[in-house]
Structures are given as structure tokens and as C-alpha cells.
Amino acid sequence: MASIICTVTNDLTYDQRMIRICTTLAQQGYTVTLVGRKLKQSAPLQQHLFQQKRLYCRFTKGPLFYAEYNLRLFIWLLFQKTDCICAIDLDTILPCYIASKLKGTKRVYDAHELFCEMKEIVTRPSRYRLWKRIERFAVPNFKHGYTVCEPIAKEFEKMYGVKYEVVRSVPFRTDYKSQKPKVKEEDTKYKEQEFSNDNPSTFLLYQGAVNEGRSFETLIPAMKQVDAPLHIYGDGNFFQQTQTLIHQQQLEDKVHLKGKLKPAELNGITATAYAGITIFENNGLSNYLSLANRFFDYIQAGVPQLCMDYPSYRKINDEYEIALLIPDTKEETIAEGLTRLLNDKELHERLKANCLRAAAVLNWQEEEKIVINFYKKLLG
């Protein structure tokens, strides 16, 4: 069978989308290698059906990191025997393009988002111009690819004339109720006098990247008006600012930053949450057109959620009604939405039941068929 190399800039441990895709391809008989970065704090690699490779860089962020990592990745790719190189997002696309041209191998683009339209890019003109030049040069040269939702696929076709498949970031079908997650005592015990909700262990959950554009500037202060604690599982480029916001709002006893967990551990905790949160600022087309991993993770765990009324989410919610949609990320809007989920028990139970129904359809065992057919057509 053919061999495939997939390239990312993270350290592999927490990339659930790539773990799923690479596992599926390995099960089909392909020799698959997932390449990422090695950090000082990187956890030991977990065993998977596919191979894994980490590249160490002296620089850990900013332009120097991207320059060093792309150079190291390019050199490493040159010495690998492979039939296909898959660039994951724009930050690895150049070395994948050049190496595939020199080696005469097939190449694929897996776009998790509209990279240039993320808030941290689009709001910084010089950074935007650089990445946009790379995108305009590289993407038209990747005739084969896939992305996470139909609106983003249409944007790529409109901008560059490429017709990409849609592979949504849905989780494996899992019986969460049979899992017994190890949850620290302080994760579920709260002083009843602080929260008047009927269940003192009720908590709200945000899981995923703690990045710019995820509305922490309004979510954190909104929690002053919400009668339940919030747990945030994840890390990212807005983590320290989020810590500061929690301190400024004097919410240390109510909003808890839990850091990253391995996917299997996080899945069990997700199933114990009362409701999840999927919100993005409408600041950059990438957020507006997004279809986030956590949206499907909550569904699969049977957890209702507060979610943005953006096109991809609205389309699925119209079919299944698994979330309470809100029109904006204002502090009052978020607080009102979360309070309604907490107080309207009939709504919560209906959304929960609908999640369980949707989970039978929106899962990786169904979605992986698209990936399998894509690579069969490309590589045989």
C-alpha cells in the first residue's frame, strides 16, 4: 500500500482530528506518519496504529519559530520515501509543496480553517499580508484537499478554483456513560451557598484552544451573572490574558483554568458537564464559517451547549436542535443564554435527548468513509 506523511505544527498529543484521520488511513493499510513539533513540556507520545515524528526547534513562537520549523520540516521531508504529503493548514504548506515538487509525489491540503481569516492574523496587517501571499501561491497548487465544512470549501473554490471535499471534525462514536473518568474532587465539589443551582456539582464547560477570537473578554465577566461554575480545558495564545481577566473580575472561585488533557481523559469529563460552550467572535471570516471540534464533542457526549448562530452551526441545529444559539458574544447575551440553559429544565432535557439522537449520525465511523474514498481515488 501507499505511504502518506501528514504535517502539523503542534506536538501531536492533543490533535484529535489528525489522530482520527491517521488511524483510519492506517486501518486501511496505508503506511502513515504524522509529523509535528517537540516541546520541552511535551508528554510522551501515545501508541497509535500510525507512526509519529517530532521535530525539535530552538524557537517556540513567532516568525522565527515558523521559519525554523518549516526549514527543518522541509529537510526532513526530502529524505523520506513517500507517495503522498499532506499539509495540515497553511503553516506547513510551503515545505510540503516544495518537497512534493522535488520528489514528484502527490500532495494534499487539509485546511482546518481559513487560516488568513483568523482574528490573530486578519487584525495584524503585516502578518496578514505575509500569510496571504503564501496562501495565494500555494493553495492553487494543491488540487486535492479537504476542509472542515461546506462554507469554507466554497470559499476556497471562490478564491482559488479548487474543489475540496468536506471532512467534518466529528469524534468517534463512544458510549460515554460506560466510562468512569477520574475527576479530581475539587472539580465537582462547590459550596452550595455560592451557587443556588439545585445541583452544587453542576458545571459549565469550555474545551479547546484558549485563543484570540474565542470571546473570553466577554465570557469571563458574563460568569458573574451565571449561577454555576465554568471549567476551561485547553491552552493557547490567549491563556495568560484569560488568567488576568479571571483575576480582574475576582472570579477565581468560579472560573477554573484546567489546562490540557489527553483526549481520552477529556472525553470522560465532557460527559459530566451540564452544558458546553462554543462561541467565537465574528471578527474574521474563519470564525463565522467555522465548524469546531468541540461542537461535535459535546453532541457525542450528550451535552447541550450554548453556540453561535453562524451558518454551519445553524444548519445542523435546524436538523437536530442540540444547542441554544445566540446572535452575538455580548456579555449580556452570553449570560442570558447560559442562565436559560440552567433554569429551563424542559429545554435542557430536550436538547440532551436530541444530542443522543444526533450522535448516532454525527460520528467518525460515518465521516471516515469520506476520507477512505478520497485517498482510494488519489492513491488507489
Per-chain topology:
Elements: E1 3-7, H1 16-27, E2 31-38, E3 51-56, H2 62-78, E4 84-88, H3 93-103, E5 106-111, H4 119-122, H5 125-138, E6 145-147, H6 150-160, E7 165-166, H7 185-188, E8 204-207, H8 216-222, E9 230-233, H9 239-248, E10 255-259, H10 263-270, E11 275-278, H11 285-288, H12 293-300, E12 305-308, H13 311-320, E13 323-326, H14 331-343, H15 345-359, H16 364-379
Parallel strand pairs: 1-2, 1-4, 2-3, 4-5, 5-6, 6-7, 8-9, 8-11, 9-10, 11-12, 12-13
Helix pairs in contact: 1-16, 2-3, 8-14, 12-15
Structure characterization notes:
The protein has 380 residues and is of the alpha/beta class. The protein folds into two domains: 3-170 and 364-379, Rossmann fold (3-Layer(aba) Sandwich), CATH 3.40.50; 176-359, Rossmann fold. The chain is 43% helix and 16% strand. The protein has 16 helices and 13 strands. It has helices spanning 16-27, 62-78, 93-103, 119-122, 125-138, 150-160, 185-188, 216-222, 239-248, 263-270, 285-288, 293-300, 311-320, 331-343, 345-359, 364-379, and strands at residues 3-7, 31-38, 51-56, 84-88, 106-111, 145-147, 165-166, 204-207, 230-233, 255-259, 275-278, 305-308, 323-326. The strands form two sheets. A seven-stranded parallel beta sheet has the order 3-2-1-4-5-6-7. Strands 10-9-8-11-12-13 form a six-stranded parallel beta sheet, with helices on both faces. Helix 1 links the parallel strand 1 (3-7) and strand 2. Helix 8 crosses helix 14. The longest helix is centred in the N-terminal third of the chain and has 17 residues, at 62-78. It is globular.
